[in-house]
Design a protein that fits this description.
By secondary structure, the chain is α+β, with helices and mostly antiparallel strands. It contains five helices and ten strands. The chain is globular and about 55 Å long. The relative contact order is 0.18.
């Protein structure tokens, strides 16, 4: 059972229209075939208790975040907010920035990666190729090296397209593996079963208030994340 205080401590922003939460690695944004309890279930329980709401609580889901990934998840408390936020995500009118801990430093400290991505539904995996292939979708991101330790490196990544497993696939294509990401070539798993990819920042125009909103999420606590958070030099 998740206590109301557990979710309250991870809420990054809340008003009458939105509730934005810092997701932990391993949490589901919404239900899937596993039937596991989801972050949405816990947020609904939080809203029901906080506002003493009778009956079911509405919670709209305008976007997804991979289960092993941590960071910012936007939920909507009204139908109007949901339709408008869904449109924002669909048209990429949201700036999304990620942090990734990888096992190899890029050759250049900053740059842009452009690939063509194909998705395999059978393996739930995407392959990034430098050459265009039939059925592939173009994928673009820019990156910047923020800090390094003895064995790992912290990248800040701005997504310019939103493809399936885009960051994981594009970095793997460059020989850089996200810590813990066995599916894309990491040497070993993380103790929590997640991967060291974190949805760090989002910026967008509020769908109702029409004001710019920028949300920043601290990474989950671990020795390595704590080291990089203190040395990122943002």
């Amino acid at each position: 059972m998740v206590l109301m205080s557990d979710i309250a401590d991870r809420i990054l922003y809340e008003d009458n229209h939105l509730v934005i939460v810092n997701k932990l690695p391993g949490e589901l944004v919404q239900g899937d075939e596993t039937g596991d309890r989801t972050l949405a279930d816990d947020v609904k329980a939080y809203l029901k208790e906080k506002y003493n709401k009778p009956g079911n609580v509405f919670l709209g889901i305008p976007h997804r975040l991979d289960r092993p990934t941590s960071g910012i998840v936007v939920y909507c408390k009204t139908d109007k907010a949901l339709s408008r936020m869904t449109a924002l995500f669909r048209t990429s009118d949201i700036k999304k920035t990620y942090w990734a801990i990888v096992d190899k430093a890029p050759e250049r400290k900053e740059g842009e990666l452009v690939h063509y991505i194909t998705r395999s539904a059978d393996s739930n995996k995407s392959i990034a190729s430098a050459k265009e292939r039939k059925g592939a979708k173009i994928a673009k991101l820019s990156y910047r090296l923020l800090a390094s330790s003895d064995n790992y490196h912290l990248l800040e990544i701005d997504l310019h397209t939103g493809r399936h497993h885009q960051i994981r696939a594009q970095l793997a294509a460059m020989g850089m593996h996200i810590k813990g990401d066995l599916k894309y070539g990491a040497a070993r798993s993380n103790p929590d079963g997640g991967i060291s990819l974190h949805a760090r920042r989002v910026s967008f125009i509020h769908p109702i208030k029409k004001e710019k909103l920028t949300i920043i999420a601290p990474p989950p606590h671990s020795t390595l994340w704590d080291y990089f958070t203190s040395n990122a030099g943002e």
